[in-house]
Amino acid sequence: MAKITVAGESVDLELGSLPLHEALALQKATGMRPPQLGEALAQQDMLAIAALCWLILKYRMGKDVTFDDICDGTYPVDLGSFSVEEDEPEPVGPTGGEAATTSPPNA
Asked: In angstroms, how far is the first alpha carbon of the chain from the final one?
């Protein structure tokens, strides 16, 4: 899960588990599927950044904005106000989630 900030507002988003309506909107607007969006974001592709901003603004923040509004500047997005913070995975111990414990040797 990632914490994504746009214009000072933050949401948690997992690209791998977008609701169907959001994934369809993404594909209709950009031709990209969610996995392709993730790859493009890793390459700092501006179309991907605009698409992610739009998805968040429209579907997660409830703003009345179209993808074209983002692309043509009708709804300006300052790239300095956009950030993605990936959650660090929690360390997993050898027993599948619990930290290993060691007992002192019997003396």
From this structure: 47
Q: pLDDT of 53-81, one tens digit each?
A: 999 999 999 999 999 999 999 999 998 88
Q: What is the dihedral of CA 23, 52, 38, 3, to 10 degrees?
A: -110
Q: Residue 44: phi, psi to the nearest 5?
A: 60, 40
CA distance 81 to 5: 7
CA atoms within 13 A on the CB side of 48: 16
Domain spans, the chain: 17-77
Q: Please tell me whether residue 85 adopts helix, strand or coil conformation.
A: strand
d(CA 75, CA 96): 47
- The rounded distance, in Å, linking the Cα atoms of 104 and 107 is 9
The residues with which 12 forms a beta bridge, in sequence order, are 3
31, 35, 73, 75, 107 from 104: Cα distances, Å? 59, 48, 65, 63, 9
**pTM assigned to the model:** 0.75
